[in-house]
Fold these 3 entries.
Entry 1:
Amino acid sequence: MKIENKKITTYQICLVALAVGVNIVGGQIALFLKLPVYLDSIGTIFAGAVLGPWFGMIPNILSGIFMGMTVDIYSLYFAPVGIVTGFLSGLVFQKMSVKKGRIFLAAAVISVPGTIVSALINAVLFGGVTSSGSSILVQMLSKTPLGLTGSIFTVQFLTDYADRCISVFAVSTLITAMGGGMVAKLSGRINNNGTI
């Protein structure tokens, strides 16, 4: 199998597997602590940032299937959000340097399309009640003039954006710490001999 005229390397397969594991662990921490953020897209954003948009879509599909079949059925339904997030994170990290103040802009670009998809899934399929801690906020706000649909979109935007800020910051910090040589090796731009 080839992507962009390059063979898929062992490093890329391992990085996708690592990203799936990070998504699962982060998602479980958020579920266990009932956090109003999800922490299940750090691996997805990392894979997208290092390997590009097409690889960025894979980790959330796999972690969504795994979590959906084992501990959290809602993860299956929200897999399209992860696909959008992974694809956009790959594009954002290719097109701009994501450091310091640009983290907030990058998080916004990555989160807004996924937030729309997520809010629609939440409103249409679940009526604002899912396994995440944000469901509590939705139910509280649903009694305000926002109503249920308005509260779903408001809470989804706020929690998705906060989640993506945390994820983009973590990924940006990790990529900076790894250095360009390691990132190039993982991405398949250079091989074990150090050649392109």
Entry 2:
Amino acid sequence: MKGSLIVVGFFILGVLAGRSGSMPAWVLSSTTSFVALCALLLCVGIGIGLNPDMKNDIKSLSPRLALLPVATILGSWMGAMAAYLLMSNDVCSILHHRSLTDCLAIDSGFAYYSLSSIFITEYRGAELGTIALLANIIREMITLLLAPLIAKRFGPLAPISSGGATTMDTTLPIITQSVGQRYVALSIYHGFVTDFTVPFLVTMWCTI
């Protein structure tokens, strides 16, 4: 929770700095965003490479549970489609100016707000990138706050799917506390797979 609030604070600080008109030209350049993106991907790779138990944790999973990331991805997309249909009709026209692929691109961040928002900003503009940032931060915060309730109501796999790409790091402690140690390997595996798909799926929906 603290980390998410810090990210939101830096986002607000960035908005205020941009509105001030005092930022140097190199900060506003798309090259700067690309360099930041490359650095972020490097850190993700280092984090995965430093985990000595990743290989053994993945081997311990049953084939059936190994499909959980696929269920998370498909379920998230179905939710985005349902939201788009509900909010872009004649009764509710909030999303009339947005396409279904916009919603699917945002949803494909799977709570990985930093990486997905950079990609979406590059492809679809700052407005949609900001929406992606907030939507994915909210997804992470919902998991952090409601994981015990989600697990009690929908079962032990539900908070793992809710956490998306964050289940191998920021939401792992609360998920472990909510569903038990037996799901630690599954949470790490789930986070690793969904984390890995984010750049490809977000780019796919942004370029369609």
Entry 3:
Amino acid sequence: MNRNVAVILAGSGVYDGSEIYESVITLLRLDQRGAKVQCFAPNIAQMHVINHLTGDEMPETRNVLVEAARLARGNIKDLREARAEDFDALIVPGGFGAAKNLCNFAVRGAQCSVEPQVLEVAQAFAKAGKPIGLMCIAPTMAVQIFGQGVTVTLGSDDAEAAGAVREMGATHEPCEVTEIVEDTTHKLVTTPAYMLAQSISDAASGIYKLVDRVLELTH
């Protein structure tokens, strides 16, 4: 397909970074479709560090870019180097890091703000009319990126997060884990992934469709 796709990561690990399965499935599908991928992450401190064995917060600090490099096998750049004009599309996997490091939705809910570097890059893609894919909890950033009225999914319409994005001014569309929701006006594609997934296969079904549709929208 020979498309260039930027992927923004938020660290490494579901509880304080990018969800590893979602990230790997995304990168796998992009590779299967022949896309060229460059991963990016903001060079900032994580909100906190979680022990993924116990769920407890750990008394240490970690860097989002350094941790995300684990997922990208070192092939990753500082988000400050990302330029929308160099790419055809942007995809952001989920995981709590998307709501803790890329924005502060995990703390502020409907009053959240997006990390300035992330917002600048994502808005550049949006203004250029280039497709964006957001999965899992990452669609909570959509209103800041696109403005009120944008349509997204977080899975169940009854979920607390869905209520928060409606409060922000988004239209929330319920969606099965195997499906995607597309806002045709904004070229935005979203899927629930681990907001609903009970297995890695569940997550992959919707993520594959998201990647495929984002690539289709680059034409």
